[in-house]
């Protein structure tokens, strides 16, 4: 499968690198020590570190961290298929299965279905012990915003 727009191999890689650059440029990511990796169409990984700065009162990661990384991983997995428009999250369902404590965590996102107007992707969080800590599924809709107009995207293309 080729990403929307038929860019082929080199164009797809440029799109993935531009999305990674867009992720780095987002002001919210100054609050989270994280890195986006898009290895192939429909797949995205967010590498991040949990530390005490994101703990709730009971000493484990607050749900905002779970949602942020799961939404981002699913979002970028879906947007890897769309080369012209920025997607918007329209819904996201989240299931917490275990608390996360300090250490490296990976959010793995995968595109599930849809290519035209609405795309569906899911994601899971893998904790420092290699066990799943949460999973989620999101729906994403094409916006009117051109990717090429967003700060960061053009820098990575």
UniProtKB/TrEMBL annotation:
Domain Thioesterase: 59-133
Highest taxon of the lineage: Bacteria
Signal sequence region: none
Pfam families assigned: 4HBT (PF03061)
InterPro entries listed in its UniProt record: HotDog_dom_sf, Thioestr_dom
Transmembrane feature ranges: none
GO molecular function: thiolester hydrolase activity
Native source organism of the sequence: Sphingomonas changnyeongensis
SUPFAM superfamilies hit by this protein: Thioesterase/thiol ester dehydrase-isomerase
Protein name per its UniProtKB record: Thioesterase
Coiled coil start-end: none
